[in-house]
Amino acid sequence: MPVAVITGASKGFGRALTEALVGREWTVVVDARSVADLEGAFSGSAQVDAVPGDVADAAHRAELAEAARRHGGVDLLVNNASTLGPMPGLDRYPLDELATVYRVNTFAPLALTQLLLPDLVAAQGTVVNVSSDAAVEAYPGWGGYGSAKAALDQLTAVLGAEQPSILAYAFDPGDMRTDMHQQAFPGEDISDRPEPATVVPALLRLLDERPPSGRYRAADLLASAPAWAPA
């Protein structure tokens, strides 16, 4: 049975992806900061190993790695946990908050990848770093989050070049109806955004067809014709 590690899995895209992989007979090690949310999402599932904690904490990352190895290794790592951070202009962006955004969105995914890389190499596995269109588009107010995701995209690209025995994908899911997206648009109706479960098939296509390492958009992956040119 293949093993995946998915961070930020109690809600939204992480939860929907976990449920899809469980349906494919995967064992999934998941985390989230809220114990109640994590246990509520997956209580009773023998295929889900829930390890609550903050992915920005080194001790917690070690617990995730240990949990995965108890199941025999790691075939897939999905760095999904993110924080939006504040959204002022860059002229007023508090640098301590920027450091927190980078710790969660950029440094933690790399640190967890470093921990699990021997297992991923042994399995010829896959790393998926969940990105955003804010990594490639200049949206006012998105300088902190967008620049952290842009840095994560570049780390993903270099990882793919340095580690040819694994696949490294920066995956841009597009807008989704999630708590974090609502946080970015307080008071607005975001019910027109797609549910995370509708985006999961795009990532499953990456896992099934295994194109070259690179940056891929869900919108392209959900198109009827394959287009294996990274975005």
As a percent range, the share of strand residues is 5-15%
- What fold name stands as the CATH topology? Rossmann fold
Spatial order of the strands forming the largest sheet: 3-2-1-4-5-6-7
**Full CATH superfamily name:** NAD(P)-binding Rossmann-like Domain
Strand tally is 7
Distance between the termini: 31 Å
Query: Percent range for helical residues?
Result: 40-55%
- State the secondary-structure class: alpha/beta
How does CATH name the architecture?
3-Layer(aba) Sandwich
Coarse morphology: globular
The whole-number mean of residue pLDDT values reads 91
Q: Gyration radius, to the nearest Å?
A: 17 Å
Unreliable residue stretches: none
The first-level CATH class name: Alpha Beta
Order of helices and strands: EHEHEHEHEHEHHEH
Please give the domain count. 1
Give the number of helices.
8
Largest sheet: 7 strands, parallel
Description:
The chain has 231 residues and is α/β, with parallel strands linked by helices. It has one domain (3-221): NAD(P)-binding Rossmann-like Domain (Rossmann fold), CATH 3.40.50.720. 46% of the residues lie in helices and 13% in strands. Strands 3-2-1-4-5-6-7 form a 7-stranded parallel β-sheet, with helices on both faces. Helix 1 crosses helix 7 (196-209), helix 3 runs parallel beside helix 4 and helix 4 packs parallel to helix 5 (143-162). The model has no long low-confidence stretch (mean pLDDT 91).
